Amino acid sequence: MNEGAAQWVKDILAGEYPNVFFTIMLNPSALKAEGTQEEVAQVARELSYGQSYRIYGLPDADFLLPVRYAELDVVKESIETLIPELELRVVDNYRLLFAVGPREAIAAARGLLLELDRPTEVE
Fold first, then answer.
1. What is the pLDDT of residues 39-85, one digit of tens each?
2. Based on the number of CB atoms within 10 Å of its own CB, is 26 exposed (0-12), middle (13-18) or buried (19 or more)?
3. Straight-line distance from the first to the last Cα atom of the chain, in angstroms, rounded to the nearest whole number
């Protein structure tokens, strides 16, 4: 991930977790989360389902689902209904869904997104 993308992810996370301070590490694809142990643990659980208090490697391909054609809210509701262990958050102004859940669920959501996000044919 380039530095601009790392900053963008940092801004999203800062908005979602206002009591946690995020720092872009020397490697632009790594972020460090600082806050109380409970707050940082919550971030780690939600984003990686891991036990680490540092969150590394947040590539777009892992957590961000771009929606090109369909209505964001309709896609979000459909995927969350079919994959209840996944939480999707709309990223305003970017036509993206930020996925929180197990990696297998995110992969399944990508497959569903291919079916749901198709251009509408005009007759």
1. 888 887 777 653 333 344 444 446 788 898 999 899 999 999 999 99
2. exposed
3. 41
CATH number belonging to domain 62-116: 3.30.1370.120
Contacts 24+ apart (CB under 8 A), 29-37: 29/1, 29/56, 29/57, 29/58, 29/59, 30/54, 30/55, 30/56, 30/57, 31/6, 31/55, 31/56, 31/58
Do the beta carbons of residue 33 and residue 22 sit within 8 Å? yes
pLDDT digits (tens, 9 = 90+) for 28-43: 567 788 888 888 888 8
- CA separation for the pair 32, 36 (Å, rounded): 13
Q: Where are the domains of the chain?
A: 3-58, 62-116
